[in-house]
Write a structure and sequence with these properties.
Elements lengths: L3 H9 L7 H16 L6 H13 L6 H14 L3 H8 L7
Helix pairs in contact: 3-4
Length: 92
């Protein structure tokens, strides 16, 4: 069940309507989440998944759920490889 606060935040945060600078930040944050996905608690994974799919228009929600689920499945091990190979001194 989504909270009122989460619904309001979703309404304000449509990636396709964000300025270019905001899109870069959102892409970087999204990539960071994917890189650490496997280390996140299941509850947090579910919340993030539900929130991400809620950003799609209602008509596209089912399609978005499938696409996001496939993406996460296909990249589930990416974070482990990236984290192991990334130098510790790299600051993003």
């Amino acid at each position: 069940m989504r909270s009122k606060r989460m619904t309001e935040a979703t309404a304000d945060l449509k990636v396709d309507q964000a300025p270019a600078e905001d899109k870069k930040i959102l892409e970087s944050l999204g990539a960071a989440v994917i890189m650490r996905w496997g280390t996140l608690p299941t509850k947090i994974q579910r919340e993030l998944f539900e929130h991400a799919t809620s950003l799609a228009d209602l008509a596209q929600a089912a399609l978005a759920k499938g696409q996001i689920a496939r993406f996460l499945h296909n990249h589930k091990d990416d974070g482990a490889q990236t984290t192991q190979t990334m130098p510790h001194h790299v600051v993003m």
